[in-house]
Predict the 3D structure of the following.
Amino acid sequence: MVPPEAALSPRPALLASSFDDLGVRLGPDGGRLRVWSGNADAMHLVVFDDVDLDWAVETLPMTATGDGVFEATTPLLRPGARYAVRAGGPHGPGNTFNPETLLLDPYARGLVSGNYGDWRGVVVEGGFDWGGVAKPRVPMDRTVIYEGHVKGLTKRHPLVPPALHGTYAGLAHPAMIEHFLSLGVTSIELLPVHAFATEPRLLQLGLTNYWGYNSLNFFSPHSAYATAASRAEGPEAVLREFKGMVRLLHEAGLEVLLDVVYNHTSEEGIGGPRTSLRGLDNRSYYRQTDEGVYIDVTGCGNAVNTSTDAAARLVLDSLRYWAEDVQIDGFRFDLAVTLGRDGNHSFDPEHPLLRAIRDDEVLAGTKLIAEPWDVGMGGWQTGNFGDGWHEWNDRYRDRVRNFWLSDVDYARRASTAPVGIGGFATRLAGSSNTFSQERGPLASVNFVTAHDGFTLRDLVSYDVKHNLGNGEQNRDGADTNRSYNHGAEGKTDDPRILATRRKAMRNLLGTLLLSAGVPMITAGDEMGRTQRGNNNAYCHDSPLTWLSWNLAPWQQDLFAHTQRLLALRRENPALRPVHFARLGERIPSASLMDWYDEHGETMSSDRWTDPSHRTLQYLATSTPENEELNRILLVVHGNESPVEVTLPVLTDDVEYVSLWSSADETPSDDMPRIAPGEVLPFVGTSMRLFRVESRG
């Protein structure tokens, strides 16, 4: 449903009818191709042989129909036809026309590669029987995101047939669905699956762009992730396999989210590959100065200029296609600040494209998650996106890592931690200092790790990155990781260090999954995956980045802890408030929060900042709207020395039911009931969760 205020806003120019129906549309007279270029003066359609992709069987002039659109209709544009376009135009700063260059239609639904690395669009019908399967529509307060790589998830899974390893079909295999469901996640977020290319620099090093943040086309699924049978059959079969994956995951109640890269393309800087947008209209599609010098706010050589209507509409149409035709449930926007930069290259949270995405009827109900930064001036915008948007919360990530890792490292060397528990508590309760009252805690996508950076296991095992295998002399990847190796760099046999690392992982996972907001787990962290200290493994398509399913007993225990935590999150609505509470008001689906120290007394102001007292009792009480009344008590102890904790005395008719402890190597099935005022021993750096229930 379109918000009421959207109806009052002027219709953005990017929705003009001149941009409608770009790409190939099939009809009784064959296919009609429409391509936009605001600066071209001529354009031709080139159709190729079905087998020899370097043999052009027909070249047809395209007619300029006005408003920058060129059009051609021919029976040669039938399903499966291979085609490209050529564009000619003026020379001068910002223009890079070459009428001999074969270019991809930006709206092509399928791609194939020629013998010399040239790409061809492929006409795709796209028909598919969804069998009445609908999108799961998981509410945000119940959403748990699982970020993973299509290939890495299944490449080594012993129960997935070898023919399906690393494929879309493999991802929807019953063994994978069972893993997702038994773990308790709701939404599978896939690293980029838009067709992408590997940078020439990596090819020269014998490496590959494994992560896929190098988009070649915004409408075609990456064919290398399809089975050999689908690839042999062609792009139509690749798309069909992709849709089949979505349907099977939806049948299981699992959502599919896509990590989408609209901020830049694989054409890199001037002099890089010329495959599509640069040859069609460089001036309109890429940010640049009047002299034609690229303004690169992405760090990838170019930045798509969404201040132009054509570029913004291209992004919007791609989203509509994936959400409607492919039934995708949501999107995580890589370097989303770039998409919201205006004609002066400054970020505007009310940018026409960001508003159009939020208000679009086709995208209604679709999860919209921004990575709220890029590398340009004013590029860090966490908390500044508008209503309807959720954001990766890097402030949450940094504070949680500091509290459990770098602060502990500091305390070992300086006898006390550098800060108290106050900042950590704010993140635990939903980051109200970052997100407005109106947006609430669900605006925050909480994460401790992501594809970019250390894995959870490496975060507690390495002080510094180990990226020599990337071919950049260890210069790439973040230098500030807020990690802690606990006394040995990397692999060790010291049982004390290993036990401390395991507890640190449980503390980090416990914090993530018991915090207000939307949690995101990085695939493999629930099983203690390692990349041997590489914190930027984007260029490794190897066992380094593929999940191993051969688990040691401690890894099985970690998986069981993650299962328990996610079950507790589902069962206790006080842990997942929809709104922030307001003092003195009853806000439905908010959680009222009370804070106590280790003595069971209300937290005094000096205790929030005192680094020698990093023990907190967090009582959250739900405000029922759709679920029963629920109260939980989470006790956090952030120093390595043990402490005794007195559970707060609330009333005489309640007791505390023990639900989970990070001090346990294996989740305990024992759920003792403990009276208010009882004193409990806590080991150093640990957490414990209780539910508050009536006596009897």
Summary: The CA atoms of residues 192 and 212 lie 5 Å apart. The chain is about 25% helix and 20% strand.
